[in-house]
Amino acid sequence: MDVLITNERKSINSLRDTDLGLSDHHAQMLSISIPDFSNIPHRIKKRQFSEAKGQEFLYLLNQVTWQEVYEESDVNAKFSTFMDVFLHCYNNAFPNRTVY
């Protein structure tokens, strides 16, 4: 006997145990109702990329002196500082916006 567990008892339309004749196991066929979420607006975070945004990103990167990166002596600190500066430019050029 195989087990089927769900916490959505009200959603079950039908449950059948079918012998397919292929092994000593039967197939469980469950039919459930799924709510229609297509009319419910959902939000996602999205970045918008374009040629103009790419140019803005390059402009922002060119404005950076990178002096604070050069001044770091530890390689891990140097990389961390580089990423902070890079991501600052990236997030300004390509902001994460909520869209519906």
Concise summary:
This protein is α+β, with helices and mostly antiparallel strands and 100 residues long. Helix content is 37%, strand content 21%.
Structure in words:
It is a single chain. With 100 residues, the protein is α+β, with helices and mostly antiparallel strands. It has a domain at 44-99. The chain is built from 3 helices and 4 strands, in the order E-E-E-H-H-H-E. It has helices at residues 51-63, 67-71, 75-93, and strands at 12-18, 27-32, 44-47, 96-99. The strands form 2 sheets. Strands 1-2 form a two-stranded antiparallel sheet. It has a two-stranded antiparallel sheet with strand order 3-4.
Taking the sheet with the most strands, its summary is: 2 strands, antiparallel
Termini distance?
Answer: 46 Å
The total count of helices amounts to 3
The coarse silhouette is elongated
Uncertain spans: none
What is the element string, with H for helices and E for strands?
A: EEEHHHE
Judged by helices, strands and strand pairing, the structural class is alpha+beta
Q: How many extended strands?
A: 4
Spatial order of the strands forming the largest sheet: 1-2
Overall helicity: 25-40%
Oligomer: single chain
Mean pLDDT over the residues: 88
Strand content range: 15-25%
Task: Output the radius of gyration.
Answer: 28 Å
